[in-house]
Recover the amino acids of this structure.
């Protein structure tokens, strides 16, 4: 598991506005997680719910939506979990894969990754 912080911008799917945040890159997580008040402020409403597993093995039903995310000059629509009001913004492995990024070995930097086809 690799963790470090990355500047990103978060917005609704239509890209009408963005909020800059410093997110924790956590390769052990799957989806992006953003504090629910920030998502609400941006006009992002929950779209579906899912049962997700926490790191301690407990399962929890959470709200999810698709958000628009900018990392550098690249923009993608990614799955986002509505976090607790005080939760740390997180970028998980699914988010990094959507951008074609990986964590450069031995560093705390994102780098272009290999995208595999079946």
């Amino acid at each position: 598991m690799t963790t470090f912080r990355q500047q990103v911008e978060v917005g609704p799917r239509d890209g009408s506005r963005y909020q800059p945040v410093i997110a924790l890159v956590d390769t052990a997580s799957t989806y992006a997680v953003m504090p629910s008040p920030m998502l609400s402020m941006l006009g992002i409403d929950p779209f579906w719910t899912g049962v997700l597993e926490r790191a301690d093995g407990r399962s929890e039903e959470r709200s999810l939506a698709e958000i628009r995310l900018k990392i550098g000059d690249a923009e993608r629509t990614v799955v986002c979990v509505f976090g607790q009001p005080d939760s740390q913004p997180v970028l998980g492995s699914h988010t990094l894969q959507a951008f074609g990024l990986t964590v450069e070995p031995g560093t705390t930097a994102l780098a272009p990754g290999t995208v595999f086809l079946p």
In short: Helices lie at 36-41, 93-98. The longest strand covers residues 59-71. The two ends are 25 Å apart (CA to CA). The mean pLDDT is 93.
